[in-house]
Amino acid sequence: MQSPMLRFVARRLASMALVLFAVSLLVFLIFNVLPGGDPAVRMAGKVPTETQVEAIREEWGFDEPLYVQYATTMRKLLTGDMVSYFTQLNVTEEILKGAPRTFALAIGAAIVWMAFAIALGLFSAVRAGALSDRLLTALALIGISMPVFWLGILLSHYLGSEAGIFPHGGYVEFLDSPTQWFWHLVLPWFTLAILFIGVYSRILRSNVIETMGEDYVRTARAKGLSERQVLLRHVLRNSLIPIITLWGLDFGAVIGGAAILTELVFSLQGVGQYAADAIGQFDLPAVIGVTMYGAFFIVVFNALVDIAYAALDPRIRLEGKPRT
Amino acid sequence: MVRLLYGGRNSLLIGIVAALGTIALGLLLGLLAGYHRGWVDSAISWAMDVLWAFPVILIGIALGTALALGGLELGPVRIEGDSLTIPIFVIAVIYVPYLARPVRGQVLALREREFVEAARAQGMGSARIVFTEILPNVITTLAVFLPLLIANAILLEAALSFLGAGVQPPNPSWGTMISEGFDRITSAPHLTVVPGLMLVATVLSLNVFGEGVRDALDPKAKLRIEH
Description:
The complex is a heterodimer. Chain A is mostly helical. Chain A contains 13 helices and no strands.
């Protein structure tokens, strides 16, 4: 058992490295090679001066062959001396500065959406067909259909500025004031979570309904367990497995960029907002850095989910081709 | 008001054309990969994995920004940076893996079925087998995917436009309108609320419709489109 598992992990990590390499190549191609003008001019921003363009062309080696350019870009990214031409700030440092905020947002939202999805999904499944179930299904569909940024704007405007219940955007360091930190994050957490609550609660609902028809659930009932025990110990545990997988994947996606809109609307100054600002200013070094950062987390979480899945579920064949 | 309608026209146009583009590309790649297997399959699957590894919104931003800035030159055709073709192209490409993977999986299973073998025994060429024997069996999947793809394409377009990487002003779309309204949220909140409501109504109806299609054609279909 031990050695196939290790082999699987090793193979999964290798394929992860390979995908990351390809991603970096693609990012490089998108920004440096895509037809449509001199990359140095684009990199210099909206109103470049001639000397600036010349300096950038020199520094990034745009007159060198492509593979040298790629190596230069990657070296700058990995050694952390990529500097934005717009703000003159170091890209890596800015990303590291924003990361804790993005993590605070993502972790909190992930807890919120999981808790609500389990509660609502379970409730819906038990009441399948009843009015409350249909109402929840309709609400879930609306949640899935809402643009995140629009919801965020409305919540922040009506509950924040108008009603004054919540602060109007911004972020407070946890160490400065834990209560203020929490208060500032409540709306962003829910904004980000709504979509996932909609998706997860519906998946859970159908899983639970399916599981309730299984033989072992009937056995559990027959041996005299209370409905509550049957539901929590037997049905829920088995219905959660696919959701947990999804949770890992989505968490990676949220850290890796899906939180951009929420951060922007609530001005949380995390990595996502940095990305959005960089785009607004056509600040290419920053955009390259942020894209690589996002892809990194997505790929890592995909790999982690696969490995955890293989470790938890003995039915997974370790010999087969890994799901990437 | 007029702007709202024109914006809606752009949003819907982009959503529908992009979804059709995704279907065409995803179908082509899925069929190729599933039917030919071997290195063709490996190459396509790997490319899909790489595209899949990108956060949807980030690759949208990356492509959208780069193209909006420089435009796109494909041989003699030159597409300007502020053309609607660019968000359509970007969104169509981003969603390809979400379709190509299930299609590939289906084709892999279908090509081993007896009726395909029978067709081969009759001496049909691969192209004909793919089009007359395999394609009709994949159509259901496409029908199930189409409404949901359009819904997601519209949402993605709105998000990209909101961030400035989608439809470029002065062209209106619901996303750019929300973005403009956001700047004046205190004095004129309806500028944000109304285009958003239009978006929700459109996407919601597409989602409900998509659910219906799925329940009717293929209730077990596993759909997952990242937002």
